[in-house]
Write a structure and sequence with these properties.
- The chain is an alpha/beta fold.
- Helices cover about 30% and strands about 20% of the residues.
- The chain has 8 helices and 9 strands.
- The chain has a 7-stranded mixed β-sheet, sandwiched between helices. Strands 6-7 form a two-stranded antiparallel sheet.
- Helix 4 (about 85-95) runs parallel beside helix 5 (about 115-125) and helix 5 packs parallel to helix 6.
- It starts with a helix and ends in a 31-residue tail after the last strand.
Length: about 250
């Protein structure tokens, strides 16, 4: 059963763009039957929370945050009222949920660029290893002078441009070390502050109106290997972890 199949069984109202369902199938299907902990920003009538619960199965629990929640608490849904653009709200929330974390974090809230950036920054440490952060309706990154602030093509204040900056962190090892050459000059290193904060960043995927970010705190070491057993590599081809120290 696909997410769209489940969508067509919902009792509560749920509003989505049609192409989102293929994205859900690609990135969220691995949680089916695994009783994931889900954090959803922007709950509205509760239809999407019903979608997650029905699709993932028994044991799934959704924590929903909304500025003006319309939905009602359910066995699988705990609602909290809060403003995702308020850093103090997130600091309090993190203190309450930092020990458990979430497998899936979905931002379908205000769609304000500054709010989306703050939400990712604050909640990244709460995303569990092998978890997925999914921000919806990122088309507002391209809205200039309408509805939201910080939008417009190439606007550095937009969420999409912020996410593009994280792409360099995926290849941070190569800014510190060049295979066959050795350590690189300090001037070309990836942003160390971002590297520390986004520890475990595995991949970013950009779609029309959606950005998906994977986290994995147990990625294999960066090591060059060869199927021929008589081939070995020296330190300039297979660097040690200390070569990436920041």
């Amino acid at each position: 059963m696909t997410f769209f199949d489940t969508f067509n069984t919902l009792e509560l109202p749920c509003d989505k763009l049609l192409h989102y369902f293929d994205i859900y199938d690609t990135w969220l299907s691995k949680f089916k039957g695994k009783s994931p902990r889900v954090l959803e920003i922007g709950v509205k009538h509760g239809g999407s929370a019903e979608l997650w619960y029905k699709h993932f199965g028994e044991g799934t629990h959704i924590t929903g945050i909304d500025l003006n929640p319309i939905a009602q608490d359910a066995e699988y849904l705990t609602l909290l009222q809060g403003n995702q653009g308020d850093g103090d709200f997130w600091d309090t929330f993190i203190k309450q949920h930092g020990d458990t974390g979430f497998d899936i974090i979905l931002d379908d809230g205000s769609h304000e660029n500054a709010h989306q950036i703050l939400t990712l920054e604050k909640l990244w440490p709460l995303l569990r290893s092998n978890g997925v952060f999914l921000c919806e309706d990122t088309h507002t990154s391209y809205y200039e002078g309408v509805r939201v602030k910080g939008g417009g093509l190439k606007n550095p204040a937009s969420f999409t441009e912020y996410a593009k900056n994280l792409l360099d962190l995926i290849s941070d090892k190569h800014t510190y070390f060049a295979l066959g050459v050795g350590k690189t000059p300090d001037s070309v290193h990836a942003d160390t502050e971002l590297m520390r904060h986004y520890e475990g960043l595995k991949s970013l995927h950009f779609y029309d109106s959606v950005i998906v970010i994977e986290k994995d705190n147990n990625q294999p070491p960066f090591k060059r290997v060869n199927s021929s057993k008589d081939v070995s590599y020296g330190p300039l081809a297979s660097p040690a972890p200390e070569d990436f120290s920041i």
